[in-house]
């Protein structure tokens, strides 16, 4: 069963049970959520449930027995981190690049890091006893255990302390349910068509078909959009379900394609993961590495920053993809960020000193280069065995052309004839019916709509007022709650359920 269908069936059942228990015994509502979440994960992936249950039990005992003295406490934290990361390291080491996603238990990449936050945050609890009920809820909460976002232990505990009865406002429930439906619709109506068509084109290429330049462009850009839409869709669903239970999960995406620099893009993409890396890896490493022997304070701090950055991206590469390719790609991004920062130290490379036309050219070139790097990283992550260079070179060597729909041939006399044909957008495919009953040309229109959405439209977090969009540069828009909006939401849910091809869209278990 696709993961989003599993959410669709489980979410209402768990919420109804939560409302009943909260009305009968408010103090046990959290325990109900913890037990129901454990059952949810056991039904979804029993192997993952067993791993998390064992890790949670061992870590809870470590946290309860955490000594106050520095030396023994450090040893206990190291033991807890080893227990949390060992299943993830083992699965990745066993799988290698090719089969890592098939071998990984569902949600392991996410809950392993959450368990690490509990081990690292426990000493800051100042000897306070952490209840087993709270720790089980933090570890197994069904909304985020499978696909994130990653919430650190101290933030979850603060929310549990502030709202022990899980009181849910009507606005929070409306917001949560609406966001869940939007996330489901994003997965089915935006991500799924992109994934189906690009996979069909890649399959044709593997069978020896030379793709046209139009088809190559679709694969490269379509996979980037697919990766973003499906991953952000599950984040939307998780955040929406959390709001329905009075839990605010971290925001994971904030229109990353609107970023104007590599640093800005990184700050907007998979934000909960990068927050983990920043707080638990970068900050401690920087505090140590800034004490290097350089005398000049500015360069001493810059060296410490660069060293901490490389440690972060080494971790990012190992977490996402095993093997040298993933690590090299991640460290290459770190090198690019360091070079950008070093360039700022040279007056010649400071864009503020450049004439306006040169600044505009640099901005456009940088944006295109950033999108190219994003596309390559997305393909390397989702298709580690794909030889992209060979695919492109073969198509170019065999005289690939831009192929357009025959309906556009009337405009052919206004366009250069060299390298242009009107044999259809997808001549390499016998059909491109990405959704049953929809015409093949819809794939081309669909990707244009998706492209406009990521560059021009507010994202779901802005739509539901979860982030400030005052400086976003997009039209200010808010979702309302009333009969007309409820009907629209029902129609969106109906479309999502009826048009899905029932494929598994989950990125980390594909």
Distance N terminus to C terminus?
13 Å
Tell me the fraction of residues in β-strands, as a range: under 5%
The outline comes out as globular
How much is the average pLDDT? Answer: 83
**With helices defined by DSSP (H or I, 4 residues minimum), what is the helix count?**
19
Using DSSP, what is the number of strands? 2
Low-confidence stretches at least 5 residues in length (pLDDT < 50)?
none
User: Using only CA atoms, what is the Rg?
Assistant: 25 Å
**How do the helices and strands follow one another from N- to C-terminus?**
HHHHHHHHHHHHHHHHEEHHH
* Secondary structural class: mainly alpha
**Strand order of the main beta sheet, please?**
1-2
What share of the residues lie within helices? Answer: 55-70%
Largest sheet: 2 strands, parallel
Keywords: Membrane, Transmembrane, Transmembrane helix
Pfam families: MBOAT (PF03062)
Main location: membrane
Membrane topology: Multi-pass membrane protein
């Amino acid at each position: 069963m696709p993961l989003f269908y599993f959410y669709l069936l489980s979410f209402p059942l768990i919420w109804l049970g939560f409302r009943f228990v909260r009305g009968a015994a408010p103090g046990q509502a959290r325990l109900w959520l913890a037990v129901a979440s454990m059952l949810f994960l056991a039904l979804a992936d029993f192997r993952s449930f067993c791993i998390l249950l064992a890790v949670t039990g061992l870590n809870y005992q470590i946290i309860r027995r955490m000594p106050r003295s520095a030396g023994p406490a450090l040893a206990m934290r190291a033991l807890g981190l080893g227990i949390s990361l060992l299943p993830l390291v083992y699965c990745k080491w066993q799988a290698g690049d090719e089969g890592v996603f098939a071998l990984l238990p569902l949600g392991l990449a996410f809950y392993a890091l959450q368990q690490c936050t509990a081990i690292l945050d426990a000493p800051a609890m100042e000897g306070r006893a952490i209840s087993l009920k709270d720790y089980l809820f933090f570890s197994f909460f069904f909304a985020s255990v499978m696909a994130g976002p990653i919430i650190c232990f101290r933030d979850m505990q603060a929310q549990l302390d502030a709202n022990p009865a899980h009181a849910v406002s009507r606005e929070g429930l409306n917001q949560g349910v609406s966001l869940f439906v939007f996330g489901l619709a994003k997965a089915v109506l935006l991500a799924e068509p992109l994934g189906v068509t690009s996979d069909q084109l890649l399959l044709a290429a593997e069978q020896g078909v030379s793709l046209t330049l139009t088809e190559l462009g679709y694969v490269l850009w379509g996979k980037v959009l697919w990766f973003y839409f499906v991953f952000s869709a599950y984040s939307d669903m998780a955040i929406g379900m959390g709001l329905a239970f009075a839990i605010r999960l971290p925001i994971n995406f904030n229109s990353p394609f609107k970023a104007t620099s590599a640093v800005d893009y990184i700050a907007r993409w998979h934000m909960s993961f990068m927050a983990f890396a920043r707080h638990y890896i970068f900050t401690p490493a920087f505090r140590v590495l800034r004490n290097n022997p350089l005398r000049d304070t500015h360069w001493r701090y810059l060296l410490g920053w660069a060293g901490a950055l490389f440690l972060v991206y080494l971790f990012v590469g190992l977490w996402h993809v095993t093997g040298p390719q993933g690590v090299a790609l991640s460290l290459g991004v770190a090198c690019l960020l360091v070079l950008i920062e070093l360039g700022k130290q040279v007056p010649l490379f400071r864009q503020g000193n450049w004439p306006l036309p040169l600044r505009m050219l640099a901005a456009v070139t940088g944006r295109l280069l950033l999108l190219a790097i994003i596309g390559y990283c997305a393909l390397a992550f989702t298709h580690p065995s794909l030889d992209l260079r060979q695919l492109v070179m073969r198509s170019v060597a065999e005289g690939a052309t831009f192929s357009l729909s025959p309906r556009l041939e009337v405009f052919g006399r206004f366009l250069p004839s060299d390298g242009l044909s009107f044999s259809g957008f997808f001549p390499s495919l016998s059909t491109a019916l990405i959704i049953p009953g929809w015409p093949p040309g819809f794939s081309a229109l669909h990707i244009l709509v998706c492209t406009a959405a990521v560059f021009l439209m507010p994202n779901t977090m802005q739509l539901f007022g979860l982030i400030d969009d005052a400086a976003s540069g997009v039209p200010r828009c808010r979702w309302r709650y009333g009969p007309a909006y409820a009907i629209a939401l029902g129609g969106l849910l109906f479309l999502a359920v009826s048009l899905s091809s029932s494929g598994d869209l989950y990125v980390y278990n594909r």
